[in-house]
């Protein structure tokens, strides 16, 4: 049965390698996190490969895998062995021509507690995800596990308060954000501090507005695999925040790390009792939120 307290972890890694090596690496790091007491463990976005969305290249579709194949088999066995919950973000091949940016939530017995397909898909310079990923069609979900109620969103979803709110309203105690975000190296000096600050601030705001824990797992390293480009310098800085936006753990910009923090459901309830944002929502006045624009 879920407890009132449990430990969560995010793993920050350099994943600029081939799928076989990234799988071995991630299995080892999950094992290390579990040995340190972590009970719910998240990997970064698209764990099995370099960040291939820097270009639009049909050859990259070969990196995708069908449901319940390599990644699920490996991490399901590990979750069962260690008795932990593992969030495994992967490139899903649903059928020929339909691919998703997805994440398994694997329970402590190795079963699937949930599947999330990234809902918001960006299209920015060197982040050409719309070429590869069909928008998710499973909606925003709470995934009950034997450790706790887990919500999983992915990277670009970080910027949308609606995604966090709906996931929290469905019962999620923690919002995990597997992530692949970084600087364009030539822009870092001018824009880097504000970009990174905005990224942290918006997710801390989700924690406050919803009285939830938030955990972001980013990758690190310069991934420069296309000739003539500056690549992307992934900024790391993975973190775990509490229900008042307080930083419980934070990683560096450039080191592989495991962050662990405790989820305290009694504290969460106390925060929500004293800051009753859910109670005071004017749901009768929110109808316009479903419009693209209010003209």
Automatic annotation (TrEMBL):
Alphabetized Pfam families for the sequence: CN_hydrolase
UniProt domain CN hydrolase: residue ranges: 6-265
Keyword set includes Acyltransferase: yes
Annotated Gene3D superfamilies: Carbon-nitrogen hydrolase
The keyword Transferase is annotated on this UniProt entry: yes
CDD domains registered for this protein in UniProt: CPA (cd07573)
UniProt GO molecular function: acyltransferase activity; N-carbamoylputrescine amidase activity
A GO biological process held by the record: putrescine biosynthetic process from arginine
UniProtKB keywords: Acyltransferase, Hydrolase, Transferase
Domain of life from the UniProt record: Bacteria
Protein name: Acyltransferase
Taxonomy of the source species: Bacteria, Pseudomonadati, Bacteroidota, Flavobacteriia, Flavobacteriales
